[in-house]
Amino acid sequence: xxxxxxxxxxxxxxxxxxxxxxxxxxxxxxxxxxxxxxxxxxxxxxxxxxxxxxxxxxxxxxxxxxxxxxxxxxxxxxxxxxxxxxxxxxxxxxxxxxxxxxxxxxxxxxxxxxxxxxxxxxxxxxxxxxxxxxxxxxxxxxxxxxxxxxxxxxxxxxxxxxxxxxxxxxxxxxxxxxxxxxxxxxxxxxxxxxxxxxxxxxxxxxxxxxxxxxxxxxxxxxxxxxxxxxxxxxxxxxxxxxxxxxxxxxxxxxxxxxxxxxxxxxxxxxxxxxxxxxxxxxxxxxxxxxxxxxxxxxxxxxxxxxxxxxxxxxxxxxxxxxx
Length: 323
Fold this sequence. Notes:
By secondary structure, this protein is of the alpha/beta class. It has helices spanning about 15-20, 20-25, 50-65, 90-100, 120-130, 135-150, 155-160, 165-175, 180-185, 190-200, 205-220, 225-230, 235-250, 255-265, 270-275, 280-315; strands spanning about 30-35, 40, 75-80, 85-90, 110-115.
């Protein structure tokens, strides 16, 4: 009886790659490039390098390089015209390496993977990055706007990023927001979602509204603008449901004759409608008025509660005084 051949064990990456017809493992090229040769393309990386989170991440990489710990490879491209290397993904790692070198660490080279693709692919590569600190919402928004400038449609961006079209459209609103609003988002004074909502509703007045709202929230001891702070008062669900039901009853109470009368009145200009009357069933009208009254009572109670809280804060003793 024939004995099955014992499979050969290839005990290294090199051996695995040299027998790829058996193992399926293939060798790809990586390059070891001195850190000082790795350049940043102006305006490409959408990070704020004075952001404390970014500073901390670069410090983390610097410590890793100084201690000889593993740091993920960078992705770089080469400019065929000049032969210079530009970072596509790994800007914080490169800065961390240079910081470590400035402190005396030996980092003779960084392992880099060559990038293959066009300018749109480069932006998406940065958006896809999982190795470093995640981009802020503003950084993502700016990259979406860069893709638009490169000719991508909103639909194409949404498909490529696996996002809803509404998400892309909202982020493009944020990308074109005043710099101060973008700073408020980056410093977590307001969420991107809330900022976008205000920008859409108030346009050029968004910045002043957010400034004032932030001051009011900080006076209440809050650190950021809550979504509830930007929205107009709305009655509780139960009361709102009652109003809707009452309006429905009013409409359904109109017979065909009254509906024809309204259709004729609709043709008149607003100035001619004043003083005109349409008969409405008293019961359904009374129900509507009652529900509206409940809504106004709830609003007054809300305002009263806010005023009491405001008065309570104003009467609190200031530390270091006898007041």
